[in-house]
Design brief:
- The chain has 44 residues and is mainly α.
- 73% of the residues lie in helices and 0% in strands.
- It is rod-shaped, with a radius of gyration of 20 Å.
């Protein structure tokens, strides 16, 4: 069995996936807050 060496694995794909997820959540939150503000202003 090969010995594990900490920090030797290539994680570029995981990093890109995580950055994409964070970007998606960020824009989803911004759009949701903007939509709620728009609805509050129009209904007020």
């Amino acid at each position: 069995m090969a010995e594990h060496k900490h920090g030797s694995m290539d994680i570029t794909t995981q990093q890109k996936t995580f950055e994409g997820f964070i970007n998606y959540v960020k824009w989803g939150a911004i759009i949701s807050v903007g939509l709620l503000l728009f609805i509050a202003l129009v209904n007020g």
